[in-house]
Amino acid sequence: MGKIALFGAAGAIGKSIADALRAKGESYRVVGRSRERLVEAFGSDPKAEIVTWDPADAASVRAAARGMDTLIYLVGVPYNHFELHPVTMRQTLDGAIAEGVKRIVLIGTVYPYGVPVTEKVNEEHPRNPPTYKGKMRKEQEDLLLAAHASGKIQATVLRLPDFYGPGVESSFLDGMFKAVANGKTADMVGPIDTPHEFVFVPDVGAVVLALADKPEAYGRWWNLAGAGVTTQRKMAEQAFALVGRKPKIRVIGKLGLRLIGLFQPIMKELVEMHYLQTTPVLMDDSALIGLLGDVHKTPYAEGVRLSVESYQAASAKE
Question: Domain 167-197+228-280+298-317 falls in which CATH fold?
Fold first, then answer.
């Protein structure tokens, strides 16, 4: 892989990849808009080089990519501004290509698949997103893979389902874990009994590095499924049981999201993607396992336990 840079490093997945790099004794660069967040996350690691960037500034993008061989792209945008996904990808690609970066790995999502037409979704499933957010994510991927097809850079995409883990505040289950740790009622977006899958964030980093190191991984996308099929209710029941409480859950449906969105505009953004609650994308990752061999997946019971312990520790410090 050579020299590695994590663009958009300060989030949960970036920290997981950094942990995997640290375990291998490798140096790496972390890139983000906020130096304060980067220092908080990586300032204690002598292997981490901290670099800030402005995606809208071509010189800044080039400086952030300079001297790197592999770029792992984790850049987030505000949930109500998904039009920035293809824009920021184009800006990053232009800078990376100009600096001679050899390869780029995009950490993607299930959004481009749209509504599933098969029980399990493999990489051959059509990308036909019915939502604006899905279309923007698909456009982002198309830009990346077009650059690969033109021979300008090697590119691949790793798709993740919803994720969770210790201190993962961007998780769909974050509010539930906080409620468990603080003795409160968990607000959850329903329905919560439909089949679902989650990936445990600490497992992701090693998979990303293994994929990035495979020459045959480039030029396509790959699925990473969760540790089997579960439901949100089962996850909540496991979490509440660990603290000796009966589950206290308040389910918010599509109408509820619309009503809350009148007062909290960001919440109405969840309405568009609500189909994932009723017709979830359950991924088939046999191709990835065939490529990498062993892919470690923490069982849900263990992942929930570790998450609850982490949230309890954080609550005790408050």
Answer: UDP-galactose 4-epimerase; domain 1 (3.90.25)
